[in-house]
Amino acid sequence: MTENLELYFTAYAEKAMQTVRECRLAKNYYGGVARRLKTGYDPGTEIPAAKQAGKAGTQAAVSEALKDFGDQEKHAWDLPKILAEHAKSKVTVTSKPQELYPRYSVAHLFTTPAGFVKVFISTQGQNIKLDINAGRNQMAAAAAMLELEKIIAFSTLLSDKP
Q1: DSSP string for 30-48
Q2: Domain tally for the chain?
């Protein structure tokens, strides 16, 4: 495993987990507001914007926020578009009621001109485990990983995201 690939995929996993944390926090907050709205709570007494929007407008905004944060969490592990063109990806989510965050098992199989590179990421809580494998032949593996580094470099240069 090269240092550049390790740095890139570690940053990728940390960014995805940060997105998951933020979405979970926001969904918890908006879920609480939604539950209080169902019991007849009027948020207009605390929030002036909710008073202007009314109960129906506030409920619509809360529902939209829950949907948006759910979509962000669902797509947290998506690869950048250019990089995704070179990969077959599978994300498995396992939730346990006693844990705050779901467990993710992420597998990316990258096809490069020099061979295949397999990237496995697994999480438990906020812990991240990374494994990058390109096969047993060391020379072929080094060539495949170098090609993947090139693909990542070009995808980063061409990406519209900062």
Answers
A1: HHHHHHHHHTT--GGGT-H
A2: 1
pLDDT in tens, 8-28: 999 999 999 999 999 999 999
**Residues 86/111, Cβ–Cβ less than 8 Å:** yes
What is the three-class DSSP state of 86?
Answer: coil
In a domain, 130, yes or no: yes
Query: What are the tens digits of pLDDT across the range 126-135?
Result: 899 999 999 8
Report d(CA 141, CA 139) in Å as an integer. Answer: 5
Q: What is the pTM of this model?
A: 0.86
Q: Which residue range forms the structural domain that includes residue 92?
A: 77-158
In a domain, 72, yes or no: no
* Three-state SS at 89: strand
In a domain, 21, yes or no: no
CA dihedral over 111, 114, 115, 116, signed as positive or negative: negative
Task: Look at the block and give the residue holding tokens 């812990």.
Answer: 127
* Cα gap 35→26, rounded to integer Å: 14
Q: Rounded to the nearest 5°, which phi and psi values hold at 121?
A: -130, 130
Determine, yes or no, domain membership for 30.
Answer: no
One-letter amino acid identity for 149? E
- Rounded to whole angstroms, the Cα distance separating 3 from 5 reads 6
pLDDT at residue 161 is higher than 70: no
